[in-house]
Specification:
Helix content is 61%, strand content 9%. The chain is mainly alpha-helical and 89 residues long. It starts with a helix and ends with a helix.
Length: 89
């Protein structure tokens, strides 16, 4: 996770003043340091212990499930904010 690609994407996003989430196969020791670099959220697609081979075989399914859950959460908060601002007017 501390590789060049996530941090490179983060630097590009910062140039455009965009927030960025990191979705990883697993979270390693010290992953919290990535928040200090500027990631808005860091998520693992691993939902249980499994072998490396199983992780590779299920990566697409796990990525889709995690992304769906994250996006559903974001959309719920956006709707809530919109409804709240409408009621205040």
């Amino acid at each position: 996770m501390f590789g060049k690609v996530p941090v490179g994407v983060l630097h590009i996003a910062k140039q455009y003043e965009k927030e960025i989430l990191c979705i990883s196969g697993a979270l390693g020791i010290g992953y919290e340091e990535l928040y200090e670099l500027g990631f808005a959220g860091i998520f693992s697609i691993a939902d249980r212990a499994m072998s490396f081979q199983q992780a590779l075989e299920q990566a697409g399914e796990k990525l889709e499930a995690a992304t769906y859950s994250i996006m559903r959460t974001i959309m719920t908060f956006r709707r809530s904010e919109t409804e709240s601002s409408i009621h205040k007017k």
